[in-house]
Amino acid sequence: MAIVRRSLHERPALDVAENPLEGKVVMxxxxxxxxxxxxxLKIEQQTPVCLVLGVVRLGKYGDRYKKLRxxxxxxxxxxxxxRPDEVAxxxxxxxxxxxxxxxxxxxxxxxxxxxLVRDIPVFEYAPSRVKQAITGRGSASKExxxxxxxxxxxxxxxxxxxxxxDGLAVALCHYYTRSSxxxxxxxxxxxxxxxxxxxxxxxPDKIKPR
Length: 210
Prior knowledge:
The protein is built from seven helices and five strands; from the N terminus they run H-E-E-E-H-E-H-E-H-H-H-H.
């Protein structure tokens, strides 16, 4: 087997070709009406590094429109500070409580808009998709998700509010999806998964006739 050696000036270009997020910043958001969790990753030498994670506290605002304005302003401020190349959000969970779904949908929409008005691409992932990508189990608990993130990203102190690690998990899920050959899609397929039609169109050489 031949061994191909790359010169130092060729390696960065090769990394980018193999991983579209190499050298970029990814922001993950877990929308909420009381706590909005966020995490930001920098991809360095094909390794995700946690830059920051935290929460935006919204419980003190009694007025729901004040909450939405705060989400827009705080997410916009984080975008201005960290300059993410792409933003990933957790899609609202479809449950029986219609009012809760409506509130979460509004929070997600406002956070999404804060990125879109700055021309930043936005992606969405279902909660089970995020858990599956990080822990291997779509039914994993918040605590299990946080524990796995701490092992993978090697940050010292786990935040008190697990909404913060939930936001970070969305960012890492997006990194895994985009850096995978099957994750090279535009805004993902169903539930944030691979868009198989796009994959076939872009990689016809990988499809073998039966």
